[in-house]
Amino acid sequence: MRVTTCAALCLLSAPGGAAETETISLNYDVVSGCPSRAQFVGEILARTDHAAIADQTQARRLQVNVTREADAFVGVLRISDDKHPPAERSIEGESCQSVVLALAIAAALAIDPDADTRPEATALGAPSTPAPAPNATPRKQAKSATQPSTGTDIPTNARPTNVPRAAKDGAVRVSAGAGLVATWGPAPEVLVTPAPFVGFTWPSDSSLELAIRLQPSFAQTGTLGPAFDAADFRLASLRTEICPASLALASDLALLPCATSDVGVIFAKGRAIAEPASETKFWLALGARGRLVWSLNGWLFVDLAAGLAAAPLRYEYVFRNPKSRIYQPPLFSPNADFSVGGRF
């Protein structure tokens, strides 16, 4: 079902419309799977010629937040400057695309009262039959009648809500949680251990999004994983994971390709022999992996990761008398983990 864009959805109390080009600063923070910041900006610029987006603190500021709550997306547009009280509008809908589109129309009207309010899919989706909004003033510099107009549907449940939403102050998003980590390679048996993590995400103007996760861990053979009869192995390490992009698979599902480095120490000690010796060696592994992230709502998420790492330092562990080799790490080894965390 298609409905026209309601004027009450878009009109937002803010300083008067600008006849000249106005510079606007934008803070755009949405959940995984939503349209990118560049798409949101493109939607505004397609509706008015009187807006320019730049990172200037003295400019009028737009804050856009979209969160996932139960079966709906909730979007908040907040407009503020140094001379007027802030104005805010909340939109709720089943589709993040429809919510972001409604917020873009509201932002365009706040900048330019003559902005084009037709739900055109210039940046946010596939074209369909346009649906003009009632009581909406056409854009002064409208498209030529010889050029076909495109549009997108807005669901009937894309509606305003008066529930207040907290906007983030900074661009960097922080996440934290804990997971169960499985590492092959440093020991003859898989090392399994619980491990906390902290992450940082830097949104960008494009679809790329830099994310870094730090995860310390301490694991020992025979604790959660299987034991090794000839020796005990312990690994204390810090895993650094760098993910340069987030690929949306669905509105609440994303795949992150990542590069990893494990730095730490490996401790080994013989067992079941007379006068067992022990060794402590530096451990380094470099690899690549994929992380599948499922967002349960606006802040809670679970993810599953798996990858392959290479160990440039491959120590040989032996019994001295009589001399016999008991283990040497392979060049390539797999790793995996399951995590639960929250975004703050």
Characterization of this structure:
The chain is mainly beta and 344 residues long. Helices cover 8% and strands 48% of the residues. The protein is built from three helices and 17 strands. The chain has helices at 7-10, 37-45, 96-111; strands at 22-30, 51-53, 60-69, 72-80, 87-93, 159-160, 173-183, 191-203, 208-220, 231-245, 247-250, 253-270, 278-295, 300-310, 317-320, 323-327, 332-343. The strands form three sheets. An eight-stranded antiparallel β-barrel has the order 7-8-9-10-12-13-14-17. A six-stranded mixed beta sheet has the order 2-1-3-4-5-6. A hairpin with a 6-residue loop joins strand 4 and strand 5. Helix 2 crosses helix 3. It is elongated, with a radius of gyration of 27 Å. Residues 1-18 and 126-170 have low confidence and may be disordered.
Which runs of at least 5 residues are low in confidence (pLDDT < 50)? 1-18, 126-170
Question: Structural class per helix/strand content?
Answer: mainly beta
Please summarize the sheet with the most strands: 8 strands, antiparallel, barrel
Q: What's the total number of strands? A: 17
Strand order, largest beta sheet: 7-8-9-10-12-13-14-17
Report how far apart the termini are.
36 Å
The rough form would be described as elongated
Question: What percent of residues are in strands?
Answer: over 45%
Number of helices: 3
Radius of gyration: 27 Å
Query: How much helix is in the residues?
Result: under 10%
